């Protein structure tokens, strides 16, 4: 059987019905596991690439319907899982379409991110306008609930004392300040998490390209994503963001601090991608691979993401990759 014939018969030994259902279950399960939901689009994206658009669309609709039914009938079932699954499914569509249409991963990331940011921003604005309780009111209610729980925990704990106790009391007794901080940071939260989620899902999908490359012709690989380069003109809005943020303490309008912070962190996510690529090449230069490399990358990405962003900024001037002389094919990059 030729490759073309295989592509028209998805239910073969490499793409069975059981595997399709397994991918759907894994994706739905990841949506309910907090930070792990960032990986939820990957199984669905692979399902799109292995089984095609029609079958996976039908699977997504059925799964969303089952989750919605569970939210209405099962006591304690988290309703946010339904909305998260729908968003996950949409992200999987954009990742798979990037590959189906043979679009470079960087270009696909940029345009897909803009679409996700636009949709999430529109949804938040719609909730703020339509809901009887404004978005800021919802945030204020959640903040008050969390702070009250922290106060109760503090009353039953004897470990906090002295300076730590004063700092804790100052924090929990200012719910309005925390609410305003979160509300003013919503643009950067939407922007950063949209692009980070897309990048992680696209990275993992390309990292596991051996699973789907027999089904879809794609002229790009993981190296095309990890060699992400921020355009040089980004340095000007970067400087502007720092001026606005710092300048709020030296005479600029108070709102400039909010604008500067949102702009700085939004730009920072792109420098984070560039810094990650440099760090990845550095680990290959040291010949660190396999599980150890995976642990290095995971801990650095989680605990030192600001370092990676700063590394990406300085890479504009120093081009750190020129110091790495190891030449290795990246399509089979081990992580």
UniProtKB/TrEMBL annotation:
Pfam families documented for this protein: DUF2232
Alphabetic keyword roster: Membrane, Transmembrane, Transmembrane helix
Highest taxon of the lineage: Bacteria
Alphabetical list of InterPro entries matching this protein: DUF2232 (IPR018710)
TM ranges: 20-42, 54-71, 77-96, 108-127, 182-206, 233-252, 264-283, 295-318
Annotated protein name in UniProt: DUF2232 domain-containing protein
Species of the source: Bacteriovorax antarcticus
